[in-house]
Amino acid sequence: MKKIILLLALAFSAFLSHAQNAVTLKAGDAAPDFKLKNVDNKEVSFGTFKDAKGYIVVFTCNTCPYAIGYEQRIIDLDKKFKSQGYPVIAINPNDPEASNADTFAKMQDLAKDKKYSFPYLFDPGQKITDEYGAKRTPHIFIVSKTAKGNVVEYVGAIDNDPEGNNPQKIKYAEDVIASLKSGQKPAITQTKEIGCTVKRKAKA
C-alpha cells in the first residue's frame, strides 16, 4: 500500500511539474531574467542591454517553416527598435536531440549566414522556455524595464499574417512598442501564437 501511495505521489508531482511548465506568462507578470550562451559564445541577459527600455524576446528556431517565414520580420524589428531602446533577444527553445537541425553549431551557422544583428541564444534543458511557457516558434514576449523590474507587456504573435502577403495585416509587436514609447499600456496584450510546437525529446 505504501508503495502505491508513493507511486501516486510521484505521478502527481510529475503532473504538477508539467502543468507548471505549460503555463504561459501573461501581461503584468514578472519577466524572468536569464543568462544564456549566444552564438558568439558570450553569455547574454537582460543586463547586457544597459540602456534598454524594454526587450522583444522571441522564441524561434532554425527549422520551423513559420520561424523561417518570420525571420526577416524579426530582423526588421531589431533594426527598427533596437536604437529606440527595444532590442530583439532570440532564444531557440527546441531540444537539439529532438530537432537535429537546431544544434548550437547550426544556430551559429544560421546567425552568420543571415547576419543576425541580435543575440540568438541556446537554452539548455529548455529551462527558460519553460519559465516563459513558450509553446511555438515563433512565440513573442514584449517586456518593459520598470522601477519594479522587468514586466511582460504582450504575449503572442508578431502579426496576423503568417503567409506574409497581407498588406492590411495588424502589426501587433510594432503597435505594442508604439504604445509603450508613448507611455501608454497596449490595447492588445495577448494574441494566439502562430508557429510550430516546441520540440522536446521523448521521455524514457
UniProtKB/TrEMBL annotation:
InterPro entries in the record, alphabetically? AhpC/TSA, PRX-like1, Thioredoxin-like_sf, Thioredoxin_domain
- Record keywords: Signal
What Pfam families does its record include? AhpC-TSA
Q: Which residues form the Thioredoxin domain?
A: 25-182
Q: Does the keyword Signal apply?
A: yes
Q: Which domain of life is it from?
A: Bacteria
Q: Keyword check for Signal, yes or no.
A: yes
Give start-end of the signal peptide. Answer: 1-19
List the protein's name: Thioredoxin family protein
Give the organism, scientific name: Flavobacterium tagetis
